[in-house]
Amino acid sequence: MKKQILVAGLVLISAFSFGQKKEIKKAEKAIKSNEFNEALGYLNDAEGMLASADNEMKAQFYAARGEAYMGSAGSDFQKLKMSAEAFQQALELNPNIESQVSVPLQNLRAKLINSAVSDQNSEQYKMAAEKLYTSYMITKKDTSDLYFAASNSVNAKDYPNALKYYQMLVDLGYTGATKEFVATNKETGEVEPFDNKNQRDIAIKTGEYIKPEERVAESKRGEVLRNMTLIYVEQGDSDKATKLMKTARAENPTDVYLMRADADMSYKMGDIAKYNELMNKIVATDPENPEIYFNLGVGSAELGEDEKAIGYYKKALELKPEHEGALINLAVVKLKGEDKLVEQMNSLGNSSADNKKYDELKEQRKQLYMETIPYLEKAVELNPENKGVARTLMNIYSQMGEDSKAKAMKAKIEAMGG
Q1: What is the DSSP letter of 52?
Q2: What is the Cα–Cα distance from 254 to 410, expressed in whole angstroms?
Q3: Which residues are within 8 A (CB) of 290 and not within 5 positions of it... i.e. 6 or more apart?
Q4: Residue 109, helix vs strand vs coil
Q5: Does residue 316 contact residue 294 with C-beta atoms inside 8 Å?
Q6: Closest alpha carbon to 379 in 338, 324, 417
Q7: Domains annotated on the chain, with CATH
Q8: Please, which residues bridge with residue 194 across strands?
Q9: Can you say where the TPR repeats lie in this chain (predicted)?
Q10: Could you tell me which of 415, 359, 408, 406 has the C-alpha nearest to residue 385?
Q11: Residue 303: CB atoms within 10 Å
């Protein structure tokens, strides 16, 4: 009797296995005919018998479900997410199935990434981040998806998820360093990157490019650590920020990006002296970069070192004459002296000595305006929509007695709705 029961049990298991396989095959056939909802119906029928299946058959089931969800999803992210989760389960159960599902996996990731790009362009950063993270989690191989998920989370101010993704990248040893195929454009003399070696080689054959080279793109590890520290500062966790930066700098003390990250962190934490110290070290590594001098100007102005700030802003403008920020900030620092002059002028009496002093101060004020006007005029020329700068320039014109220029600037402000 026991033997009969055992045989019956074996037959029962075989029948269930056969039923599962049959339903999965029917689902796969429906998928090939683009009958995705029909396929999901067959898979639902098979799911109840799944517990007794081996991992290989379970993987086959989840792979089919992944394809069916993807095919029926359209732009429905929830279905795309269910598709991704199904494929992920299939790969965990049977890693060898990856070659079989490589095409649908590529199609799914393309859908998720393209949709994320669209969300990013419309500033739906949180949704873009979720789609990119979903894309990464399918195979956990393309860390660039995780990196961009973190970046979008930062833009969305979703700092907990940003930290989660960045920490995953750090734990994975992510650098983001990739090989680039470049060549020099004969006409412009500029080094230009190509998508792949084949494209670069074709460009060389046209004769329009020379000096084919391979180079490694700059590591993004510094940026990852920088963003993590700034998020910790934003959250008020300066201890974690300081500890993380200390570790990162110890790993590579000459990494300029990390030096800049340390400087940014110091600035955020109010340690302007350390910020300036670090920025001066960075200047030595890239003395032709106007942004470095601009940032040094900001730091010096914060410390009340106005003359140093002016010098840095002028250096930034020497390297980049159309640097709007440097033009405006230079004017702001110069105009700081106006309040003191006006205060002195208002404190004077009516004696001949006071009148003489008043005229001297008035002339100093006029000279201050004359020095400032060119920077403000250039800033308005670069950005005619900046009402704050236009209004300041209008007031200076009025103080200088240049009524026609003041009226013209007033008309511009009114045209902007100001």
Answers
A1: G
A2: 51
A3: 315, 316, 317, 319, 320, 323, 326
A4: helix
A5: yes
A6: 324
A7: 14-156 (1.25.40), 179-216 (no CATH), 316-418 (1.25.40.10)
A8: 181
A9: 64-97, 290-323
A10: 415
A11: 13
